[in-house]
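User: C-alpha cells for AAA+ ATPase domain-containing protein, please.
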Amino acid sequence: MEFKTAERKRAKLRLGITGPSGAGKTYSALLVANGMAPWSSIAVIDSENGSAELYAQLGDYSVLTLTPPYDPDKYIAAIKLAEQKGFEVIIVDSLSHCWSGEGGILDQQGKATDSKFKGNSWAAWREYTPKHNALVETMLKSSCHIIATLRSKVEYAQVVENGKTTIKKLGTSAIQREGIEYEFTTVFDLSIEHIATPSKDRTGIFDGQYFKPDISTGNKLLSWLNCDNNSISKAEVTPLPPPEAEEVPDIFTSNTIELLNAYQIVSAEAKIKGKQTFVKLVLLQKDTHILAWSACADILEVPVGTFITASIVQKNGTNIIEAYSIVKGGEAA
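Assistant: Done. Predicted C-alpha cells:
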C-alpha cells in the first residue's frame, strides 16, 4: 500500500442524459455519440419501443431492441454483445426501464415482497439490489463509451408564500435508483426546449453552460477523455460546480452591477434554501443563454418562452433578477 502522484489517463465516457418525454434524449445521445465515433461504430440498446430507429436517416448505426421483461441481465448481455462486436459507443436508451419498467428491479422486488418474502421488503431488496449493482458495474467496467438516457419526472412541493400555501414545481429527477448520477462522468439535464443543463461535469468543459447537445459536444468529450497526462493545464480546467448545499447563491451581497434588458425565459426551476424559495432561470438573449436567480417565486407562473424585461444585478459574479415585467405586444406590461 502506497501513495503515488496523480496522473491524467485516457478514459471511457460515462454520460447520463435525463429529461421528460419530448426533450430529445435519444436524438441528443446519437449526435454526441457521432462526435466520438463513426455511425457504424455506434450501438443502441433500445427499450423505448423502437424510438432509436426513428433517426435512421442520420447514419448507419446499429440497434438492438429489448422487450419486456426489462431484467437487468438483458442489459448486461446486450452491453457485452456490443463489446464483442467491436462497437466504440453504446447508447442505453433508456436506463429507466430496467428500474421501473415491466420486469424491472422495482417490479421484481415488489412481486418477491408479496410472495417469496411474505411482505418483508427489506429481505427482497437484499436479493434484488445485487442485480442492479451488477448492471452498474458492467457499465462502469465496459471497454466502450457508455451514454445512458434516463426518463425524468416532475416533482412538486407545498410552499408557503405570504401565509398562503401553494403548489410549486421544484424540478425533475431521473427515474432510476437514487444516487445513479454518481456513476456518471457527466450528466446533462434536458429541458422540453432541448436545452442541456450540466448537473454534473467532472470534465469541467460544460460547467455553467446551457446548450443544445450536438456532434461538437461529443468532439469535446472525446478530446478530454483521450488527453495525455500533461495536455490540460490547471489554468485551462474549469472549476467543478459548487457543492449542492451552496447551489442557491447569497443574494444579499455587495458589489452589484445593474443591467436592464429583454430576455426570453428558456426554463425556470424552484430551489429551496432554508424556508426561502428561489428560482433558477435560464434566459435567452439573442443567441446567448444566461443563468440568473430570482427571489420572486411568482416568476415560476410565467410560461416558458415568454419575453420579459428584467432588472438584473450582478452580485459576486451571480446574475440576480430584482424586478421583471412581461412583454406583451412588444411593450412591457
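User: Anything notable?

Assistant: DSSP finds six helices and 14 strands in the chain.
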